[in-house]
Structure formats: structure tokens, C-alpha cells
Design brief:
Elements lengths: L4 E3 L5 E3 L3 E2 L7 H13 L3 E3 L7 H10 L8 E6 L6 H15 L4 E6 L7 H13 L3 E7 L3 H10 L6 E5 L7 H10 L2 E5 L11 H10 L3 H11 L3 E2 L6 H8 L8 H8 L19
Parallel strand pairs: 3-4, 4-5, 5-6, 6-7, 7-8, 8-9, 9-10
Antiparallel strand pairs: 1-2
The protein binds nicotinamide-adenine-dinucleotide (NAD).
Length: about 280
């Protein structure tokens, strides 16, 4: 059911489906979306300092009638805030805007070259101080993870990466499973750009579900946490209504076969991205 949770390597439980709020406007838009989401059964929200809506996320949490400990709030340190001291400051600022005394998950947003190991030390401190229940990374490739783990005191609990039927990340997923790092899918719906894909349309008809639901169910059955974004009530509800059907192994493979190793967002190894 939607109450089932993934168990991270430190024992913390994380909902399989969360609401992504990238480009949800701070204030009424993000607050309303989160209220609809909570009513629909969501307990997890994915924001970042970059999204400039942490204050609205915090307001929605404060106004919700769900106990704080049932919610799972993720935020991230932006690239220009990396390094040990700056990350500690950025974290304090995020907590302040959110109006929280801890987050459930704090992520290194991108593996900024020459910086992310120092940043990780700050996340370890934040975790050891109990101010993040779990810590992780985002947009880390296998080589970044290997490099980080070689020196880390704490292994990341989560790696949040671009993941959808055009970018199935099979090697990274199996590496993360081997290491006990939970993979989490960003841009799981490819912003809706894959909704006409004939195989997905056919499967939607077969299961009497929407294409969005077929894709998000494929995430779950691959053991990947997913965070679709919407600010529209019926879509928010639709995107978590994926616990009442199961894709066959053959249909899972048909979806995976749509892979083109094609990124929609930046390549984490592109130095231009960090300039
Ligand atoms: P997404 O794939 O979730 O697509 C969102 C868009 O798809 C919506 O704006 C809407 O146009 C459409 N949509 C959503 N549900 C639909 C439905 N049921 N029917 C029809 N259309 C629907 O894209 P995203 O927002 O880029 O990614 C999701 C979340 O991942 C973000 O909000 C953010 O929290 C996170 N993210 C993280 C990173 C990172 O670097 N860590 C990068 C991008 C996104």
C-alpha cells in the first residue's frame, strides 16, 4: 500500500512515492499542492534550496494535521554552497526556511568536482548531530560513489538520479543495490514528454491505468523510490494511486527496453554545468 516504505541502510524508513516540488512556486502553489498530496496519502516531499520554495513547504507542513514524525522531508545543498563550512551554513538556512528542527534526508545536489568530499563531511556532522535522519547524494555516477565511499565515515543512504524509461541506469541501480544505497528517481515522468510512447500507451490500456501510473509502478517494481511532480490535484492523486496493480515481468522488460541512455537534464560529468 502507499504506507509501505523503503528501509534505508541505517534503518530509517522512506516512502516509495513522494511529491517533487521543483518549479512549484513558493507560496500558494506549493502549499496547495502539498495539502492535496497529504490528503491523497503522500508523506514525502522533495525540495531543495535551489527551488526557492522551502518556506512554502514549511508552511504546508506546519498547517498539516499529520504528525511531523510521519512526514519525510528532503532538501539539498546547492552547488554554490558546497564545502564544509558553507554546507553547514546552507543547511541551517534551509532548516530555518522550512521551520523544522530536522530533515529526514539531506542530499548533496550534484557532485561538484573537487568539492563534494568536503561537503560530505558536513553532511556526516549534520547526521551525527541528529539534524538529518538520513544523508545522501544526488546525480552521483558509480565513479563518484566509489570515490566518496573510499574516504567516507558514513555511506550515503540514498542516491537520487535522473531515471525513467529512456534512462534506465541499470549498472548504477545494481551497484547501488549491492552497496545498500537506495536509488531514487528524479524526473520519473520525463516531464510528460514520453506519454505518447506506443508501448506505454498500450500498457496503460491493458492495465486500465494512465501512462504516468504505468511508469511510476515500473519504478516501484524496480525497487526505486520515485518523486513525480505535479501541482494539479487530480494528477497528484493519480500519481500515488499505483498500489492496486502489478506489472508482469514481461511488461517490466518491455518498459526497460525503451531505454536510450538518454539524459534530459545535465550530465554529472560535464564540467560546463558547474561553471
Ligand atoms: P517529472 O518527470 O516529475 O514531470 C513533472 C511534469 O509532468 C508536471 O509538471 C506535469 O507537466 C507532468 N505530469 C505530472 N503528473 C502527470 C500526470 N499524472 N498526467 C499528466 N502529466 C503529468 O519532472 P520533474 O519535476 O523534473 O521531476 C520530479 C522531481 O524530481 C522534481 O520536482 C524534483 O523534486 C526532483 N528533481 C531533482 C533533480 C536533482 O538534480 N536532484 C533534478 C530534477 C528534478
Amino acid at each position: 500500500s502507499s504506507h509501505d516504505r523503503a528501509v534505508l541502510h541505517n534503518g530509517v524508513q522512506m516512502p516509495w512515492v513522494g511529491l517533487g516540488v521543483y518549479k512549484a512556486e513558493d507560496g500558494d502553489e506549493v502549499i496547495q499542492a502539498i495539502k492535496w498530496a497529504i490528503d491523497a496519502g503522500y508523506r514525502s516531499i522533495d525540495t531543495a534550496s535551489l527551488y526557492e520554495n522551502e518556506a512554502g513547504v514549511g508552511q504546508a507542513i506546519a498547517e498539516s494535521h499529520v504528525p511531523r514524525e510521519e512526514l519525510f522531508i528532503t532538501t539539498k545543498v546547492w552547488n554554490t554552497d558546497q564545502g564544509y563550512e558553507r554546507t553547514l551554513e546552507a543547511f541551517n538556512a534551509s532548516l530555518e526556511r522550512l521551520g523544522l528542527d530536522y530533515v529526514d534526508l539531506y542530499l548533496v545536489h550534484w557532485p561538484v568536482p573537487e568539492m563534494y568530499k568536503e561537503t560530505w563531511k558536513a553532511l556526516e556532522k549534520i547526521y551525527n548531530d541528529g539534524r538529518a535522519k538520513a544523508i545522501g547524494v544526488s546525480n552521483f555516477k558509480k565513479h563518484h560513489l566509489e570515490d566518496l565511499i573510499a574516504d567516507a565515515e558514513i555511506k550515503p543512504m540514498v542516491n537520487q538520479v535522473e531515471y525513467h524509461p529512456r534512462l534506465t541506469q541499470e549498472d548504477l541501480l545494481s551497484y547501488c543495490k549491492e552497496k545498500g544505497i537506495q536509488l531514487e528517481a528524479w524526473r520519473p515522468l520525463l516531464k510528460g514528454e514520453i506519454f505518447e510512447e506506443p508501448t506505454l500507451v498500450e500498457l496503460a490500456e491493458k492495465y486500465n491505468k494512465s501512462v504516468a501510473q504505468i511508469i511510476l509502478r515500473w519504478d516501484l517494481q524496480n525497487g526505486v523510490v520515485t518523486i513525480p511532480k505535479s501541482v494539479t490535484k487530480n494528477r497528484i492523486e493519480e500519481n500515488i494511486d499505483i498500489f492496486d496493480f502489478e506489472l508482469t515481468n514481461k511488461d517490466m522488460s518491455r518498459i526497460s527496453a525503451l531505454n536510450q541512455d538518454k539524459r534530459n537534464g545535465a550530465d554529472p560529468d560535464d564540467p560546463e554545468f558547474y561553471k
